[in-house]
Amino acid sequence: MTEHTGHEDLQAALKRWSEGVEKKLSKRPERKAEFVNTSGIPVRRLYTPLDGADASYLSEVGLPGEYPFTRGVQPTMFRGRYWTMRQYAGFATAEESNRRYRFLLDQGQTGLSVAFDLPTQIGYDSDNEMAIGEVGKVGVAIDSLEDVEALFNKIPLDKVSTSMTINAPAAVLLAMYMAVAEKQGVSADKLRGTIQNDILKEYSSRGTYIYPPKPSMRIITDIFSYCAENIPMWNMISISGYHIREAGSTAVQEVAFTLANGIAYVQAALEVGLDVDTFGPRLSFFFNAHSDFFEEVAKYRAARRLWAEIMKERFKAKNPKSMMIRFHTQTAGCTLTAPQPKNNIVRVAFQAMAAVLGGTQSLHTNSMDEALCLPSEEAVQIALRTQQLIAYETGVTDTVDPLAGSYYLENLTNEIYERAAAYIKKIDELGGAAEAIEKGFIQREIQDSAYRYQREIEQEERIVVGVNRFQVEEEKPTNLLRVDPAVRTSQIERLKKLRSERDDAVVGRRLADLKQGAEGDQNLIPLMLKAVKAYATLGEICDVLRGVFGEYQQVNTLG
Amino acid sequence: MGKEKKIRVLAAKPGLDGHDRGVKVVARALMDAGMEVVYTGLRQTPSQIVESAIQEDVDVIAMSILSGAHDYLFPKVMELLEEKDVDDMLVIGGGIIPDEDIPALKGAGIAEVFGPGTTTTQIIDYIKSNVKTRY
Question: B63 lies in which domain range?
Fold first, then answer.
């Protein structure tokens, strides 16, 4: 081919150069015999135009805002507007979390992200025996609509977008959010935000499941149809690789298992008769930003291309918006170190930069103290400032996808794309993501990677600054943010008061309607909306569904 | 200790916390070090943990919590063990546990608490030298 003419010279030059380098290696060896990234992809000494010589630019990379979206989902990306700066926050009571949200909005944060405590995430009220010790600890405790009213007090829901990390009880929290909006006089078509609503990764990686897969998928498709008709700007799911990566997967596995879950949701929605282009544009994604800089940037680009192809070719989507991966990113919690916590500021900055150069739509930067406790206000502020620095000072936002064309990055993007596609093929052969989880395949793959990673650290093949090299003697940190155990007592008091003041007969009827709906095939969201408005509690609603659907039993993949 | 008898460990996740990366890595390292490990899976109540420990006749209970509920759940396990007159099991904990909480946990009978950055070798060595021989 004529376009390769120049490459013959290059090939010759490269051969000469390589031979020269090899000769000197005996005297001056490289740091390692083999350089490999977390995905097991060998990293070569040098990448040149030869590495991209076979690529078909338009079909594999293309232009931003156009299929296959490798370079980004919008044509102008951050020249138009920056990503949404969205810090995941929430602890103790609704009132206390509300104060933190208003602090963050005052500091220039542009979206909210709600962290719920574990009892809320697993559908227990604060007075349940299972909740002892956990109330308000890893997020805010929500028992009823009353708490959600306090959570968004003085925050106009038509002005902010709100992301809620809630999965098994996602529909209940969405109903509560809608009820608060209604009280504020905000109509549902103005609501912007996201519910995580991604149950498959709960089974494989995160652990806050309630019901078995089948009824869980039914609730999810109920949410899809309800949102498509009633809350057009709402992201009805956030298909999450973040937790898969935190559980120990590689970058390639993160892409593969996330998109495989995505495929399962699309399939489930098609099976209940939804049209791919009505819900396709409202699917959103959530990825991790880990430490290997180029591997991460390549990961986002590969994920965009792979999903675009899946939606277009497998699911025959017509609307380009259905083919776009719009995603949130969070820097990797698992890379934060307890020793020398200030080093985490730097770690997070590099990870955040990778997410920005990978074209994220919104970003959470971790706080330096999160390997120790919940983040303090000062630590959260530095984390937010890190994003603002990248946006306003570094200049990386002035052109679209500035790393494109790097021989290394483009090569790595292809490698990750191909390896993730191969995994998805394997999962297809196992019968899809839900089956692969039921068989323990995905969990085993993740735990093998986690074990390998830990061994690499212990054998010092992988250096973690401050942990297995460059350690110092240091004072133990003090004044860590702690949640007052009295939060549980105050939640229980509030519940008692609520139960004595509300109309129990109405609550009973609403819960009976919900039970009947769950036994049949009625859409559950309007029934939940009625129940939450009558101040039925989260636990009561989830208990009704537990009664009908049963509870999931985890597959033991150890041994 | 003779070769014939392997150290038996119950790896447990008390409470509602779903973070099981650490406990699985540790469990596997203990197996590679020649111990027998029974993993409880997620969401175990203190009484379920104590029952499993007795039923499986383990020498060690290794619990992991990252949700902050250790201050209630760890001592509760110790209390139930005492109720059942079990005093020959080595009980250790790990996870995200602030240093200032450790004295109280040790006071309740948790022998050692391992935080982020601990190597699996440290845990293996600790168990080998502190397991209470019952034979």
Answer: 8-130
Identify the sign of the CA torsion A491, A492, A493, A499: positive
Nearest-angstrom CA–CA distance, B24 and B12: 10
Encoded amino acid at A312, one letter: K
Band the pLDDT of B135: cuts 50, 70, 90.
very low
> How far is the alpha carbon of B27 from chain A, nearest alpha carbon, in Å?
8
Tokens matching residue A39 = 């995905």
- Taking an 8 Å cut-off on Cβ atoms, the answer to whether A371 and B96 are in contact is yes
Does B16 contact A451 at a Cβ distance shorter than 8 Å? no
Q: Cβ B17–A248 below 8 Å, yes or no?
A: no
Q: Which residues of B touch A372 (CB under 8 A)?
A: 96, 98
Nearest Cα to A524, choosing from A229, A227, A222? A222
Using a CB-CB cut-off of 8 Å, the residues of chain B touching A138 are 67-68
pLDDT, one tens digit per residue, over A202-214 is 999 999 999 999 9
Mutate to test the interface with A, among B6, B21, B74 (most CBs of A within 10 A): B21
Q: Which residues of A touch B20 (CB under 8 A)?
A: 207, 247
Any idea where the domains of chain A sit in the sequence? Answer: 57-458
Does residue B1 sit within a domain?
Answer: no
Q: What is the homologous superfamily of the domain A57-458 according to CATH?
A: Methylmalonyl-CoA mutase (3.20.20.240)
Question: What pLDDT sits at residue A483?
Answer: 83
Task: State how far Cα A183 lies from the chain centre.
Answer: 30
**Option in A134, A467, A485 nearest B117 (CB):** A467
Do A248 and B25 count as a contact with CB atoms less than 8 A apart?
A: yes
Number of structural domains (chain B) is 1
Contact call for B39 and A558, based on CB within 8 A: yes
Contact B76, B103 (CB under 8 A): no
Those residues of chain A that have pLDDT short of 50 are: 1-3
User: What is the reported pLDDT for A2?
Assistant: 43
Please state, in angstroms and as integers, the Cα–Cα distance from residue B97 to each residue in A351, A473, B17, B45, B70, following that order: 25, 19, 13, 19, 7
Both tokens assigned to A261: 């879950």
3-state secondary structure A233-294: CEECEEEECHHHHHCCCCHHHHHHHHHHHHHHHHHHHHHCCCCHHHHHHHEEEEEEECCCHH
Residue of B nearest to A556 (CA): B41
| Reported pTM | 0.95
Our CA-based measurement puts residue A506 at a distance from the nearest CA of chain B, in whole angstroms, of: 31
Domain with residue B109: its CATH number is 3.40.50.280
Q: Do A558 and B24 touch (CB under 8 A)?
A: yes
pLDDT, tens only, B116-132? 889 999 999 999 999 98
Indicate whether B135 belongs to any domain.
Answer: no
Distance between CA atoms of B47 and A170, rounded to whole angstroms?
30
Verify whether the Cβ–Cβ distance B18 to A373 is below 8 Å.
no
Establish if B53 belongs to a structural domain. Answer: yes
Q: What is the pLDDT of residue B27?
A: 98
CA proximity to B94, closest of B32, B33, B5, B29: B29
The tens digit of pLDDT for each residue in B43-102 reads 999 999 999 999 999 999 999 999 999 999 999 999 999 999 999 999 999 999 988 999
Question: What is the pLDDT, as a whole number, of residue B6?
Answer: 94
User: Quick check: helix, strand or coil at residue A116?
Assistant: strand
What value of ipTM does the predicted structure carry?
A: 0.94
